[in-house]
Specification:
Blueprint: E1 10-17, H1 22-36, H2 40-48, E2 52-58, H3 60-73, E3 75-81, H4 115-120
Antiparallel strand pairs: 1-2, 1-3
Length: 121
């Protein structure tokens, strides 16, 4: 299968519970804790932060296995092709909302060397 897909990589995205039923959500939470060894806090975080990428840069075969497992647990998962965003090294990126280059201004500070110099200030 690796040759047929041309070396494409995929990511697996967890979309939450498959059904909006309290029993199904409880079953999903219990299964995530039991099978993956996640703490209740980690499962709650995962459920609140959907969609969450749970696996990336993987083959289609591996991604489909993840999808099968999560769907069997009661979750909803999507398999998406990876999109690589390449940033040119020469491209300047905004710095905290400012566009253009950022110049560093050297600051020279003279620190006192001795106790007498420190106390006389």
């Amino acid at each position: 299968m690796g040759q047929a897909e041309g070396g494409k990589k995929y990511r697996v995205v967890f979309l939450g519970a498959a059904k909006r039923d309290f029993k199904e959500v409880d079953r999903l939470v219990a299964n995530l804790q039991k099978i993956f060894g996640l703490s209740p806090h980690a499962v709650a975080y995962l459920m609140r932060m959907v969609p969450v990428t749970i696996k990336k840069d993987t083959s289609l075969e591996t991604a489909m296995r993840y999808k099968e497992v999560f769907e069997a647990l009661g979750g909803r998962v999507s398999v998406e092709p990876m999109v690589r965003e390449e940033v040119l090294e020469t491209q300047e990126r905004p710095f905290y909302g400012f566009s253009g280059g950022v110049k560093k201004i050297p600051i020279k500070v003279k620190y006192p060397n001795s106790f007498e110099e420190r106390t006389s200030l």
